[in-house]
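Table 4 source record.
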Amino acid sequence: MGEFRLLTLNSLSAKGLSRLPAGYTHASDETRPDAILVRSADMHTMDIPASVLAVGRAGAGTNNIPVAKLSERGVPVFNAPGANANAVKELVLTGMLMAARNVVPAVRFVEGLTESGAALDKRVEDGKKHFVGAELPHHTLGVIGLGRIGALVADTGIKLGMKVVGYDPEITVDAAWSLPSQVRKAHSVEELIRASDFISLHVPQVPATKHLINEARLGMAKRNAVLLNFSREAIVDVSAVLAALESGHLRAYVCDFPEERFRGHPKVVALPHLGASTHEAEENCAIMVVDQVRDYLEHGNIRNAVNFPDVVMPRESPFRVGIANSNVPNMLGQISTAMAQAGLNIHNMLNKSRGDMAYTLVDVDSAVSDEVIAGLRGIGGVLSVRSLPA
């Protein structure tokens, strides 16, 4: 199994860390870690030690991690997709209900009451007409992004009697299978926005999604539509949202990302990044990412790395080699030739690629010498090589 040292940049759930067996150590001041476990700490300015073999993010988003830089070193970055999905779904539902029933403005009104007795009763009766809301059934919920969270939000909308329309050009087969059949497919963001009373965002923050919701698209919204953003702040152009609230194209903006321009705004509900802030979600994320990092350190298997393909191969030999390389021609041939020249018999091999990255697991029938490992590292395009004895 081996001994491995982990650097923890944030406190992680004890239930997650309890998955580490004897031989593992973890500390917040480890100087030569084999892996890093992180939640929200910003790693972009960090001097990441050369000893690091893997990074595990106890959550879904990885924009706080220099993924491209780690990819160049052949280091996988694991995340925990779906582990916090139920927590985020419940908060989205909370946001929809708050917006539909004008809960936050109503609470602010009550907090400002100074009367008492009959005067208070009269003020309440006179004031409540300003907070008349709407019920969710028969309204249309538009869900942009139909991964684990988006699918749960869509399912919840249907169970509440809403019409649901979804858009996701990158939807996976597994995600498509998990969607309720009642979800109507939109062919563009614009089509979805035009059709929706409530618009919920569930896409990752990547260059292509920056300001996905902008002035032009908000101009297509139904008057008095509600926009919910529990995904990432930069997906929305805040200036355009504020203008749409002023013009009436949006009735409310509910998000998980406070900023200065929202202070005191009567049509904005901004929460302090509570999406995954439940005990259950924190435990689920920590357990999932610890298990994945451990499987990689011990066996070289990769599940849910944002920069590597999924490669999982049952061990059929006590001697295994894991190789990360650029996705270029004849790499497998060079690996096989180097092993054959060293007298190693390949028992089993699995190779997969994802974009510019490829990863190979090789089980051989005898121990792999340091000289062979060095030879494999010398092949052009190879990024990292690990020997994984049982």
